[in-house]
Amino acid sequence: MNYDVVVVGAGPVGSTAARYAALNGAKVLLLEEHQSIGSPVGCTGLLSTRAVAECELKPSDEFVFNSVRGAFVHAPDGQSLPIDGKQTKAYVVSRKNFDRKLAVMALEEGVELSLRTRAIGFEKGNLETGTGEKKSYPVKLRILRNGTLETISTSVVIGADGVKSRIASYAGLEKPARVLPGIQIEAPYASEDSDFVELFPGSSAPGFFAWTVPIDEKISRIGLALEPGLAYKNDRKESSPIYYLEKFLSSNPHVKSRYSGGMLDFVVGGIPIGPPERTVSDGVLLVGDAAGQAKPTSAGGIYTGAFAAKIAGKIAAEAALEGNNSAQRLSEYDLLWRKGLGKELDIGMKIHDYMGRLEDRQLNDLIGSLNTPSILKIITEHGDMDHPSVLMRKLMFSGNSLRLMKAFGAFLKTLF
Ligand SMILES: Cc1cc2nc3c(=O)[nH]c(=O)nc-3n(C[C@H](O)[C@H](O)[C@H](O)COP(=O)(O)OP(=O)(O)OC[C@H]3O[C@@H](n4cnc5c(N)ncnc54)[C@H](O)[C@@H]3O)c2cc1C
User: Fold this and answer.
1) pLDDT digits (tens, 9 = 90+) for 342-380
2) Which protein residues touch ligand 1 with a CB less than 6 Å away?
3) 106: Cβ–Cβ under 8 A, 6 or more apart, which residues?
4) What is the CATH number of domain 3-43+97-176+273-342?
5) Ligand 1, atom 17, residue with closest C-alpha
6) Top-level CATH class of 64-92+178-272?
7) Could you point out which of 230, 247, 362, 377 has its C-alpha 20 to 30 Å from the C-alpha of 54?
């Protein structure tokens, strides 16, 4: 073997998986097809305090632009629900610098990083050892390094190659259930309060929501994501993400009055939700966006991806060093990441589907009925970007059942 573990993709998840594989004794190679870490960016860079901690980073000026403590949820009719978490709940980061920090941490643990190196296919070798239960199928990974074709041999490949994962295809693993198209600009925007993000559910972004995330009081990241099944119409032009974004910027009265035109940055990308049934096969693990681990309620993939990456790195290293890279051995990863995240992602998908299908009129009623001091207190105390089920449970068992029954119908009961 040239390597025990090869990680394909040096995004935040790949760097974390590589670091954990090295920490567990493996010889690790991390491949990145681009010539620079953290670029191009396909993200809003809104990370919960928990997400930053999960990545084992301390918030610092090196990557944090701004801290936010809550959200204004804007109903389609213009009413606003203020949710004030009272303390820092999330950071707005430079994804470029954040990704680089994680890559440096991997290098410090002895990971070898190869830029301008694209994985383009692999073959699984013959069974090398067949003694007892142990099996080892070396993986011959074909790569293009600086344009030159090479083959490297490894025990385990970790596919951290994002939403379009080629490693998933090479390994014959299913893709995530759905990919939400997202679009965003960074632009001059006079924030109402730069300690708060703004969320706009409803027909501005069918099936999901639009957002503004302040970098400071004068510049925000303004974007949206869509549920293709709900947003796409026969006329593709009138259902493209850019169509919805232009409409949002020019016709939402709140946004229009604060956005002064132009842009400093433009981002498009897909958000994979609904992990496939299997995220391992012989010699291969999938993690992060490649495994559809983004949260269906917020589109955030860093917290969940980092959580799963640490397990992936550890199991990949242990399996490689034991000389057993069979799918059966690697399935411990599948089991463990689902134990930690599976329930939350399932509940998140139900919330995503329920909220996404509400019409503007229903959203106006729902948001209006949540705007009472006692309900806002519950949301403030228990709202959690990473674990929406906690708030849903608290709401369900709060003393506001009649009001909430009216707002959510039987939906809350179907969640648990
Ligand atoms: C518009 C938008 C906004 C978002 N906002 C947020 C947010 O605010 N907060 C949040 O937590 N998440 C957000 N996300 C999701 C987040 O960006 C992803 O979940 C996260 O980047 C996933 O990390 P990853 O390492 O799995 O994949 P990626 O970050 O996509 O990294 C994959 C890496 O693999 C490399 N690669 C791909 N194929 C190959 C190959 N064959 N060989 C070598 N290298 C390869 C790519 O170049 C890339 O560097 C957003 C996504 C979008 C689209």
Assistant:
1) 999 999 999 999 999 999 999 999 999 888 888 888 888
2) 8-14, 31-34, 42-47, 51, 118-119, 160-162, 166, 182, 184, 223, 267, 269, 271, 288-289, 294, 299-302, 305
3) 10, 15, 16, 18, 19, 22, 28, 30, 113
4) 3.50.50.60
5) 43
6) alpha beta
7) 377
